Amino acid sequence: MRTRWFLxxxxxxxxxxxxxxxxxxxxxxxxxxxxxxxxxxxxxxGGKLLLAANRRSGTVTVIDTGLSRAVxxxxxxxxxxxxxxxxxxxxxxxxxxxxxxxxxxxxxxxxLRVAGRLKVPPYPxxxxxAPDGGRCFVASLWARQLTVVDLxxxxxxxxxxxxxxxxxxxxxxFLPKAGKLLVADSHGGQLAVIDxxxxxxxxxxxxxxxxxxxxxxxxxxxxxxxxxxxxxxxxTTARDDIHWGNLLTNNLRTVSVASLxxxxxxxxxxxxxxxxGDVGGGAADPSGLVxxxxxxxVVALGGVGEVAVGxxxxxxxxxxxxxxxxxxxxxxxxxxxxxxNTFADSVSVLDLSANKAARxxxxxxxxxxxxxxxxxxxFYDGRLSHDGWLSCHSCHTDGHSNGLLNDNFSDxxxxxxxxxxSLLGVKDTGPWAWDGGMADLKAQVRASVxxxxxxRKLSAAQEEDLAAYLRTLAPPPPPACAARRDPGAAExxxxxxxxxxxxxxxxxxxxxxxxxxxxxxRDEAGKRAFNPPSLRGLSQGRHFLHDSRAVTLRDVFARHxxxxxxxxxxxDLDDLLAFLESL
Amino acid sequence: MPATxxxxxxxxxxxxxxxxGATTALPDRELVERFAQARDERAFETLVHRHGPxxxxxCRRVLGRAHEAEDAFQATFLVFARKAGSLRDQGSVSSWLxxxxxxxxxxxxxxxxxxxxxxxxxxxxxxxxPLEELTLREARAALDEELARLPEKxxxxxxxxxxxxxxxxxxALELGLPFSTLKSRLEQARDLLRRRLSRRGLxxxxxxxxxxxxxxxxxxxxxxxxxxxxxxAILFEAGTLTAEAPAAAGALALAKGALNVMxxxxxxxxxxxxxxxxxxxxxxxxxxxxxxxAPPAAAxxxxxxxxxxxxxxxxxxxxxxxxPEPPARADxxxxxxxxxxxxxxxxxxxxxxxxxxxxxxxxxxxxxxKSVWPAGEAAKKPAQEKLEAAALRGLLGSVPGETNLMSSQxxxxxxxxxxxxxxxxxxxxxxxxDAKRAVIVDPFRRGTARKAxxxxxxxxxxxxxxxxxxxxxxxxxxxxRGEEGTTVxxxxxxxxxxxxxxxxxxxxxxxxxTVFGYSxxxxxxxxxxxxxxxxxxxxxxxxxxxxxxxxxxxxxxLRDEGARAVVxxxxxxxxxxxxxxxxxxxxxxxxxxxxxxxxxxGEVKEARSGNEALFRDWPMxxxxxxxxNPAVEAVAxxxxxxxxxxxxxxxxxxxxxINSLFPLPDGGSLVLRTGRLERTEKGRSWPVVPDHAVxxxxxxxxxxxxxxxxxxxxxxxxxxxxxxxxxxAKAIDLLRTALKDEGRGK
Lengths: 583, 746
Known about the structure:
The complex is a heterodimer of chains A (583) and B (746). Chain A is an alpha+beta fold and 583 residues long.
């Protein structure tokens, strides 16, 4: 049952019609003071133009690479996450994560205009074109869906198929030889192999990885390169473990396409794992990746404001850029890399023959960041940790969770690994930490930086800023598959929730309470009292209970009988799950 | 016009010398006798002046800051005054003073670092030695410790000749030894020290040991300090020194502390010697889980017996709670009392066991001890110390496993070594007597100085512009030392060269290798054994925080060299903690349970690896023998149980026990057996038995051990001297066959 719903392709009609030109596209201006936060780059006109999609301002900035200057800016949507150009360069596709739309832009020289819009499942975070340009694929994060979009008439994009995914997706990579699409997990280490023709998930591969933020094909087309992180389950967050790269590593992994596509093969066989950081110089948060014609790679290291250039054979050179480099674009001749510095509102131009940042292009006037904006910058800053090995985002991926266990000190002991909690909705879930020992969010932030990341003490202002950012994080919505369920089931499930007195500990509206309870769970140090995690956004959780002993939500009750009074008939359990997944 | 401090010092010295009159020429033993017999103040003063500079140097070296060093200095002589009576039959006074001074200073330093109000949520390791902590000073502290631990017959000549700078004939006279004996003891002492230091992971050469200890001008003892010390010592001996006396409080506390713990120090030292050879599992976690078992001594000074009883009680509590097969408490206490009686040469009471069974608190234990404690003549201080040591020995001996006590300093040094972080420019220096300058004996391979171009034998001419001519070694070291990331400019020249060279060198962590290759090719290890086959060689010498990282680098080098199979040599491994061994095994395996740990409560925990699987897809052979650290044995067992590697060599020796570290009220720690490792493959247990047994005779084993030791040095010996290694040869054979089979598609 559980597997069938996501393997099934659901054909949906186009839910939104292409709308009139310039409906929401007034000209913006680089001179206007604002925060832009570029998140994606695309090149056009043989590399003469560079286009930056801005996540905060919802604009696209047009950069003349010859002049090294932002020459135009257009408002496209509410918050852009990705940008792709058609092979002929006449059309650009932007994923509007905040507006839940795919936006098609027509381009004539430096002029951009909104040509069409398509409503897509919520939180579209990436858009990739099929090589022929006739179709594109849009991955929607919290909806956990991939939409195949027909671009036969680019100004009238239409949804052709929607495919349910078993995880919240982010990056995509088209494998031209096999005609398959790879879609990567946004938080954990899963890869889905998708047959775009049949509109279905062919297989799901699991890699020992999380935070996959670089996905590229080698020039031979025989292997896939992934930039990601690895959290070592055997390590603690003791300073020495971080220092020697025992806890968390930032990696570039090469795997063969053949073993990825063969569902029975070990995907790691014949692969190479390379380490981007080294002792004394961690490489927190690989955030973007391109492969050069000579086989070397350019990896943006978002957490440390650097770019790593090189590869397993030649070793790595690190080039300093500005704050939180993410997207990378390579000039057609492969000699120049453009790197979007998300928090600096700039693009660094890297001369790859000299391995240095040749120029920095400002995207426009920058507004003064608010406390939560500064907090966001700290959240993604690996330099808060010892030697730059990790940032908050390294485990709390984009404020959510990488779904892994970590043996840190926020429960007061080592030797007791616990599931990394999502911070989405964290403002309503105090007290914090698994034992509920932190009454103050700032104190939790402080403890995490000092005893988990082993960094320097934060200033009081930094703690305020980080807490301010965390308070802006909202719980994620349920995936599309949950929304399709019989609404009656969730209602009935709510009754089961009441009958089982779940609300004693998980009291609405936050679905948590301030106390710690003994619910029959015990950690390795003998601790039995746990603060109930909030149930909001539960549908987006991966594993459950403090040590992830429940692999699925169903297991929480079916196997571990968590909090149950008496028997729970199968139908009631189904209803309860439906209710919980609607939260 | 008032005299400058320097002048005052001089004047003071002259005055003292004149006043001291006849006593200045007397030998130490005579002076001690005079003081002990007749409280001859001048005799004591002479001793302070004679040995003061050495004592002060020790204190300064350990404590750095002046006023703390002065307190420790004073305390040393307070203890000396109190103990003078029992010193008559001791060996060298300077050696005795050296030992006391270094212990007091180390203790004082540990005390300074204790957080007065540790917050509840802070881990025990919340302030794990900051990076800058493990500096040359740490090395010297370790050196001091090892010195203190040497047998007296070796320590005395070293201290007299190297630390106090006496001529050898003079030292021979002082110690009442023939010149040739002194000379050979000096040699042996240096050798022993070198070996012990290297066992602690400090790759200090003999030259450095000599250099660090010897050479240089006196650390001038401030005149006022010497005077105060003499005055206070006399009062203290008479039992009338109070903390209200000016500048007495700090020294008084230290002296009392030292007198209280004296007997246990020896035991602690013994414990440390074996520390690095045992696995400490879950140490960190358990240290936090357990508050010190008894409260620290109250403000009112407890009697010695009460203090001892508390300490012993704390140990029995921990044993009862954490030992997998704890002896009955009555048995432990009976063994304690029996040891005391044996030491006192009296028969134990017939109902000892019954008496012991009635003890149910620390206070009752004190009473119980008192009931067997000899009174009268035997109760004098030196005898007391021996009795207390016997009590501890008796208790620890009654607990199965290697039960030991460690001082807080030992715990900390152990932590630092297992963390493998050492900040500096990475050079060993000594004093070149002819040039009167510091000379660089060995630039460490991974030190920044070596990378900058510094050569062995370079004389240091200037450090940051300061001329080193005549500068004492500690001064030069102080100039060289600094925070990580800062730079130091040094001007050096070869002894015969006229041109000097100047380098600006960054201070950085200088890690020592725990992973080695087959042979050295310049700065890098070579792992390929022979160009005729594709087998590479990786040796793990010890397992620290850095080992997994080093294995990753080794894997990359092996790939670069074109290897396709690997021999992992785990023979003769020294230090390892289970946590680090777990990280290492986890790095080598692919999603496997490594082993299970069963603790005293019978609780079983599983350690499961991730999927890093270094040397993925390669045939692997692991060399094992009877000289491995237990934690490393566990790694070999995990590889065997997972079917990942073929084990070649001889059976190991361990029984799979886990030892953990528990804090004690006095700041030291108890090392205690707490559980056992269980293997994952049914029917397999300990010791680890190789899949292919290849014996090696005694001579061969010794030659191998010697070779492996040499390979860990900065400049390993030439390949031609390699001893025959049938175990390695067998492993290579097996791997070549495996590669051939792979080639045939088997």
